[in-house]
Amino acid sequence: MNTTLRKSILGIAGLTAAAGLAAGPLNHGTTTGNELTPTTPIAAVQADKPDMGTLLPHGTPTGQSHVDLNDEQITNVKAIIAATKKAGMDERAAVVSIATALQESKLENLGHLGDRNDHDSQGLFQQRPSSGWGTVEQITDPEYSTLAFLKGLKQVDGWQDMPLTQAAQTVQVSAYPDHYAQWEQQAADLVAEHWTS
User: Fold this and answer.
1) pLDDT per 10-residue tile (average), the chain, 197 residues
2) Which residues have C-beta within 8 Å of that of residue 79, sequence separation ≥ 6?
3) Cβ count near 102 (within 10 Å)
């Protein structure tokens, strides 16, 4: 390593260490002469990632499905997480929401599908304007549709303690009530990955 490069690296390392000492937390302790004996150990702080036990409180149901997501679907995942935080709800609510949207639309913000449409269902959660979920413009807005879903979830007594598929079905009233469970692991993985991003 040439001398100039070595001096630059050492200089930067010294500045970094000095800045860290100056900007870091104060270490209160007792002194004996020139020594400082810390009274509490210093721990590194990391961004908190959700715990899988919180995300999957009942464990992973059998028969899990998985779909590879594109950029638009990941953007919708992030929108669901942001709306969950805006609603003041926790990571488990985000798991329920994402699993529901995976089942209903594979996280695609669907418009009217013509003959393939289930009545007038649209958006991430396949909500229906005729059932009072909102206008087409509202239910095809990821934030609005997530907040509408979460409003329904909040009204389900004890949803936090229910299996995911039961909580989702109580809000959605689907013809296929058990299908939400197959997306629980992928939804939990997505929340773990994107909750703090």
Assistant:
1) 43 40 38 43 53 85 95 98 98 98 95 59 91 92 97 96 96 90 97 95
2) 142, 143, 146
3) 26
